[in-house]
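Ticket #4471: structure export looks truncated?
Reporter: QA, pipeline team
Priority: medium

Steps to reproduce: submit the single chain below to the structure queue and open the exported record.
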Amino acid sequence: MQAEETVDRVKLKQIDSEHSVPSNFQKRKRKGKIHQMAAYLGPAFIVSVAYIDPGNFATNISGGSKFGYTLIWVILWSNLMAIFLQTLSAKLGIATGHNLPEMCAKVFPKPLNWFFWVVSEIGAMATDLAEFLGGALGLNLLFHMPMLYAGLVTGLLTFIICYMEKYGQKIVEVIITVLVAIISIAYLLEIFLSKPDWAQVGIHTFIPSLPNGEAVMIAVGMLGATVMPHVIYLHSQLVQYRCIDKTEEGKRHHLKMEKIDIALAMNIAFFVNAGMVIVSAAVFNRNGMVVETMQQAHKSLEPLLGPLSSGAFGIALLAAGLSSSAVGTMAGQTVMKGFVNISIPVNLRRLITMLPALIIIAVGINPMNALVLSQVALSFILPLPIVQMLIITGRKDLMGSFVNKKWIQVIGILIAAVIIALNAVLLYLTFTGQS
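Actual output as written to the record:
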């Protein structure tokens, strides 16, 4: 009897060991996949910063305080458009081995490329106004630093972040990802403290509604502040760092990994943007407060939720300003080199992109006016990279097997038409003094 029990125990151990081999193998395989995926993560996280910059803070907080949860759906649809456009940009970079400005230099006449370069460079500089302003405001709110000194410190920190690119793009990706994590954690804390109405959040995420004409204007502003032209150019450049395997199979694998990168980064940006609206609705709208400026938002959070909340807001704004300023400066470098192949020392190119923002902060321009200038610039410039990208990715002689299918091209044209139309509305409202 004991001998039979011993044999049974030996058999059970053998069965367990047989099952443990595939189990360990599967674990190693999973670890390998995770490690492989991690090697490709980064470019979209740099790009995602443009979707959670100080311009987004302003429009989302204003929308949430005025209309509660009703405009969260705008954030969702803006994010879906952003995912589509950034995927096209990444595909262009991977398929051709060049960034979008470089491909424009190959495809379009030289005089047209000079025009593209001038307009894009103005856009990068104008966008930097809001980004630098956000970083300066963050320092001002947290440390009561005068705006001029705060702007200079923001410029210095941005320069340091961009300078780290000298040691490899991965270093910059890690720095930007950490800043995105800080923004995300800050708003997670804000949501926890604000105790929102989750039923209303769910309803208004999926059911569109526009209470009145002012809500239409703010919705247009939210979309205008979300889809940014400079990161469409930049994303096609950032993927080059990982374009090692130039075979068809290698490019397809790279694109597959980049789509995962985009999905993760853009959805984090969606949750941060939605968090801004949710917190603003739960704190300000619920208490009958309309917030028009970031200083007012910071000042109002402390008595309503405590110093921890206002501190988190200031830190999030600082991180958003620094990271988006660095990304704007990197984009400025890409368009300058790509369209017209001007050889200017990299540090000088960075300074050229930063300088207008620092000058305007030094002059003491009204913060909200700087945001309006940024929106106007984006309204003019946004159609260019979208149309350029659709033309190039729709050509088989340039993209090969990666050429856009007809349905992708149709969706791209529809998205471009919607964004251009809505930005035209925003431009009209800005010039008529209604924004």
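Status: closed, not a bug. The export was complete when the record was re-opened. Leaving a note from the reviewer for reference: The chain has a mean pLDDT of 80.
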